[in-house]
Here is the input.
Amino acid sequence: MKRFLITLFLCGLLTSGFSQSISKMDNIKNLLELTGSGKLGVQVGENMIISFKKSYPNVPVEFWDNFLKEMNSDTLINLIIPIYDKYYTESEIKQLAEFYQSSLGKKLISIMPLVLQESMQAGQTWGKEIGEKVYNNLKEKGFVEKD
Here is the structure.
């Protein structure tokens, strides 16, 4: 009788933990869909294909089209879910989802691609300026031959 109760108790714990885990995974998937993470990832992939097309103009369009067909947001979301599961509690996931459903959260989602794009451009400009400054300093100190 004691074994039966212990077994029943353990099964209850496992079932409870499993259902919470499923619930958390569903909440994470919902959060990623709210934020458009999968769509953004696919957009990045599409931009990579456009870049490859320019680099390899002799490759037939069908080749690139086949790659585009393979890219879907569900695949990316399924890869990201375990990462969110690792770093966020279920409560935090729910709070994030609530935020992204607010007016400020919706604004953040809508303008984030623009913010990221402009930030990358600013970072490239900054990096170029630093690179030029370092190179000019190296030339002045005699570590690099002057032109």
User: Anything to note?
Assistant: Residues 16-101 form one domain. Residues 103-140 form the longest helix (38 residues).
